[in-house]
Amino acid sequence: MEVDLDGIFTQNVTINYDDYVYVEDCPSLDATSVFLPCVCALALVLGLPGLVLLLALLVRKGRRRRLRVMDVVALHLAAADGLLLGTLPFWSAQAGHPSGWSFGTPFCKISGALFNIKFYCGIFLLSCISLERYLSIFRATHFFTRRKPWLAQASCLSVWLLSLLLSIPDWVFLEALDRNGGRVECVHVYPNTNWRLASRLLYHIAGFFLPTAVLIFCCSCFLLRLWRGPLLDPQKQRALWVILALVGVFLFCWTPYNLTLVVHTFWRAEQQPEPDGSSSSGVCGKPTSSLGKGLVLMFALGCFHACLQPLLYFGLCRNIRREVLETLSCVPAAAEVDRSLSLWELGVGEEPLPQQNPEEKVVLNQVPGHVEQQLEPSQ
């Protein structure tokens, strides 16, 4: 049998591969569509009961008597965590559903804005209470006092207002957009790269780097003061340790996400302008996929902050722990506990009353002795 190969090796044919596009084969159900819904469900199961219980304790205490400063801060921090947990089911549905985002553009704007408002409120409230403690300890300036109980509420409401203003880019640019052949995603759609870069820089500088610098400075001063020895009374020492724990957990959970987002911002600044989502997993087969998946992982770590914060309150604050156990009927109610005290048991940001000063008590106890010594010779 003969095979005619005439002409196969003699023809000079040039094939142009310039227009050839390699498309990586993607599985129908990638890791992100499974991982993110599982993480969101776990965060809801672990964080929602503790958050609801904490809010119930604070609201019940607020109905009986005026909340202390740290109770007010805890209430607003818990409300901010509630915003995050409330948006998790929608981001989970976008990741797990084949058609993507199915709630429309208006709810896309609401969910994205609430997510960033939660982050702004959390870091700003921690910055405020850390700065107040720094001024109180190192500058003898008491910002929150019992003479001005409304100032703590006004400060927290100002934080919410500032967070709402910083979320304006989310209200303007977030849209439900068909990106990948019928899959709808809730993403930012900017007119050009300059708007995108300006919006991201506003988030990075005003929302993360400046507050983080304040937190690091204040916490470094707290650690130095605690390391030098018992220069503070035990009440203030406990206050500093609780604030350090809250700040440390917050930065541990949210710093990786924000640093990854910074890399994403400046790496994408050199790419072709296209719709962008801060939590997008990237397009399969493109170099953005690794960075996008990294954002998803760091986003998952940030979500667990809402779960850890109630556990910190329960573990570090004895009054909160007792209130929780009494509410769950695990221990009998203690009649000797002063219910007017802060749930934090710290008195953070409040000046001691004159009768609470131990030095004055010592002087008062010594006065009768001196009087008796003066009266004995006369008798």
Characterization of the model:
The protein is mainly alpha-helical. It has one domain: Rhopdopsin 7-helix transmembrane proteins. It has 11 helices and 2 strands; from the N terminus they run H-H-H-H-H-E-E-H-H-H-H-H-H. A two-stranded antiparallel sheet has the order 1-2. A hairpin with a 2-residue loop joins strand 1 (174-180) and strand 2. Helix 1 packs antiparallel against helix 2 (69-96), helix 3 packs across helix 7 (234-268) and helix 9 (305-316) crosses helix 10 (318-327). It starts with 30 loop residues before the first helix and ends with a helix.
Key terms for this structure?
379 residues, mainly alpha, Rhopdopsin 7-helix transmembrane proteins, two-stranded antiparallel ribbon, 11 helices, 2 strands, 3% strand, disordered C terminus
* Binned strand content: under 5%
Classify the oligomer: single chain
CATH class: Mainly Alpha
**If strands are numbered along the chain, what order do they take across the biggest sheet?**
1-2
- Which structural class best describes the helix and strand composition? mainly alpha
Mean pLDDT across all residues, rounded?
Answer: 76
The unreliable regions are 17-29, 272-288, 345-379
CATH superfamily: Rhodopsin 7-helix transmembrane proteins
How many domains is the backbone divided into?
Answer: 1
Give a quick account of the main beta sheet: strands, pairing sense, barrel closure. Answer: 2 strands, antiparallel
Distance N to C terminus: 145 Å
- In total, the number of strands is 2
CATH architecture, by name, is Up-down Bundle
- Secondary-structure element string: HHHHHEEHHHHHH
Q: What is the CATH topology?
A: Rhopdopsin 7-helix transmembrane proteins
How helical, in percent, are the residues?
55-70%
| Number of H/I helices | 11
